[in-house]
Amino acid sequence: MNTIYLVGFMGCGKTSVGNLLSKQLEVPPYDVDTTVEKLRGQTIKEIFASEGEEAFRNYESLAIRQLPLENAVVMTGGGAVVREENLSYMKSKGTVIYLKTSFPILWKRLMKEEERNKRPILLTKTKEEVFELYQMRNEFYEKSDVTIITDHLTAEEICIRILDEIK
Ligand code: S3P
C-alpha cells in the first residue's frame, strides 16, 4: 500500500483519524509535526518563536520527505500544502486525503485553551484572519486526491469513508 497522507486545516481531526486509520490498516502512523520536533529537538512553538514560520516550513518540507512512502499513514500539519511542491510530492508518492470541516466547527474546537496554545499561528491572528487563511488554504486542500466532508462525523465514520475510497 502506498502511503496515505491526511491534509486539512488545524482542528479537522487529522491526528485522531490518522491514528485510528493506521490501526485499521495495521500500518504505523507518522505525524509530520512530531517528526519536525524530533528533528530539531524543539517544540513547534519554540521553532516559530526562535526561527520563524519560514524556517518551520523548511523543516516541515524536509520531514515530509523523510517519511516512508509505503505502508504508512502520515498526518501533515495544516500549512503543509501551502508549498505546492509538498502537495505534488505527496500526490506523486501516495494518496492525499483532505478532511474538510466547516469553519464554525473548527473554530469552536480551536478556541479550547489547550488547542489554541499549541498552535502559534492562532496566537497572533483574529478570527477573521484565521477564516481568511482557511479560505486561502482550501484552494490547495481541494487539489487532494480525495475529499471527505467530516462535519458531524465521528473519527470511526470518517475512517469507514476513507477505507471505502481507497479500496
Ligand atoms: C500549522 C498547523 C499545525 C502545525 C503548526 C502550523 C498551520 O499543525 O503544523 O502549528 O500553519 O496550519 P495541525 O494542523 O496539526 O494543528
Mean pLDDT over all positions: 97
Over all CA atoms, what is the radius of gyration? 15 Å
CATH C-level class is Alpha Beta
- Which cofactor or ligand species appear? shikimate-3-phosphate
Total count of helical runs of at least 4 residues: 10
Unreliable parts: none
Give the topology string: H per helix, E per strand: EHEHHHEHEHHHHEH
Which percent band covers the strand fraction?
A: 5-15%
Largest sheet: 5 strands, parallel
CATH topology: Rossmann fold
Overview of this protein structure:
With 167 residues, the protein is an alpha/beta fold. The chain has a single domain (4-154), classed as P-loop containing nucleotide triphosphate hydrolases (Rossmann fold), CATH 3.40.50.300. The chain has ten helices and five strands, in the order E-H-E-H-H-H-E-H-E-H-H-H-H-E-H. It has helices at residues 14-25, 32-40, 44-51, 53-66, 84-93, 103-110, 113-117, 120-123, 127-141, 155-166, and strands at 4-7, 29-31, 73-75, 95-100, 146-149. A five-stranded parallel β-sheet has the order 2-3-1-4-5, with helices on both faces. Helix 1 (14-25) crosses helix 10 (155-166). The longest helix has 15 residues, at 127-141. The structure holds shikimate-3-phosphate.
